[in-house]
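Inputs:
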Amino acid sequence: MVAIEPSKTQRLYLLLKEQILKGVLSPGHRLPSEPQLAAQHRLSRVTIRRALEGLEQDGLIRRQPGAGTFVLDARPRKGVVGDLSNMLAHLVAMGRATRAKLLSFSYQPSTPAVSAALKLAEGERVQHSIRVRYIDDTPFSHLTTYVPERIGVTYSEADLASTPLLTLLERSGVVADRASQTVTATLAGPEIAELLQVEIGSPLLSMTRVVYDDHGRGVEYLSALYRPDLHSFQMEMTRTGIGAERRWSPVSSLTRPGTDTKPLPGRGNPRRPSITPL
Amino acid sequence: MVAIEPSKTQRLYLLLKEQILKGVLSPGHRLPSEPQLAAQHRLSRVTIRRALEGLEQDGLIRRQPGAGTFVLDARPRKGVVGDLSNMLAHLVAMGRATRAKLLSFSYQPSTPAVSAALKLAEGERVQHSIRVRYIDDTPFSHLTTYVPERIGVTYSEADLASTPLLTLLERSGVVADRASQTVTATLAGPEIAELLQVEIGSPLLSMTRVVYDDHGRGVEYLSALYRPDLHSFQMEMTRTGIGAERRWSPVSSLTRPGTDTKPLPGRGNPRRPSITPL
DNA sequence: TGTATTTGTATTAGATATAGAACATTTTGC
DNA sequence: GCAAAATGTTCTATATCTAATACAAATACA
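Outputs:
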């Protein structure tokens, strides 16, 4: 029995794509010729060409008969470089058109995992919703939320489709006090891939967040998926303390779209951080 | 021209693997029967079986003729649930065996991307290194670093294989003052996959960090890849301010391995945050 | 016990991936 | 202009992937 491996074409395709997007191969750079690539990777020229065709479709390379294959100006529309901690508020402030599509809205008995996270009693019911958020008609996040039923009943289906969940919660008298969020990487399954308009098997940023009120009770469980080509999680840190006690302190910052990783001007002057009210 | 896609077998294999490792399918849980899976995913039973065979080889499932297919005690050695911000120090504190393998060590002319991030002059040279860090003989991170040559010369190859880079830098008189880090998701290419002992095409957490000294000059450019099954990036947040000015403030926290997302006890009492001295 | 369900195994057929080769067309550079 | 080298195109041949089907063996349950 052989280990399950991706096709050779896809292997090469992803490899080259990574290198181009990562900047290892800078724009204007000429790739080795197809026969050379075939020799280097010990693949047939047919396979090489299939991979290059994929890159060409992606607009990452330009192939000129007789001349060669050249890397184009990579990172095409990396337009939105967001901070997961304040993305939505930031986008709205920029006047970008944002809308959410409500895919599911129901009341269910809680699952074990959600119950544990929200500290619910056995069999307690939760309000469950699935949304996809778009920016300029491009899907950029897939949101699955669970809210204890007693809180969930305070807002309607229409509310959820138009208003950020955390706003709804606070409007209902919930006092959000603490949150714990975890960021990981996953793969896009068939449904998610279609909803976020990416290839099946594409990498996705996965964030799980649990929000607690001032009594330590869980009020929201959020599982979010983001397209890494549209968003990344960024944070600024400063060095504080002296001697052996010198450590790094996080400073949540705003990142302007189109602006690359840029440290805060001067020192001190931390921006006011915020969390996405999704 | 068709987009380059992974094989259906591999697609399903990775998808199920993710769900098992992520805990969506808990140990002891019985998977749908092969015909059911075939119907759900609209694949033939042959394909379903190939994917399951891969999972069986990985020791993730048990297949019993006549009975069904069951999820085994997943995350066998999920031991390490780390915080990217202070992972290494934390692991060391726990007495886990950590070692780094130095794969490459050289001085090169800087690439455009690195030059921009570190604010180097045109053509300035950098010290480049690639390392893989292991914990208990399991690879968990792939580290690529660039340091301006004037700083890089202050430590040796042996230093780098044994001592965290940031420690070396500070030993050389560099004053690390600010850092900017970005977290995204990527796919594992052939070499990375082999080094980190994952399948080609598996999702990886990608972190890029730039450290600046007190004069705002870049002193370290780090590109790190982490296995999401072994690590996730976690942060705690608290609500501060009042009224319309009420916002979320990040509180970098320690996560104990084996302990799932758990809010800080009481309120206030923020842990002293730190950054990984990789 | 008997029946339904499940996994294991085998066969057939078609679609696709890959290798290898030949030749045309375009560009580059002498 | 000419030769070399690059991509574009077409073809043959083999191996693998996937679908579809049938049947055997093991298990669960009434």
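Remarks. Confidence is low (pLDDT under 50) at residues 76-85, 252-278 of chain B. Chain B touches chain A through 84 residues (CB under 8 Å).
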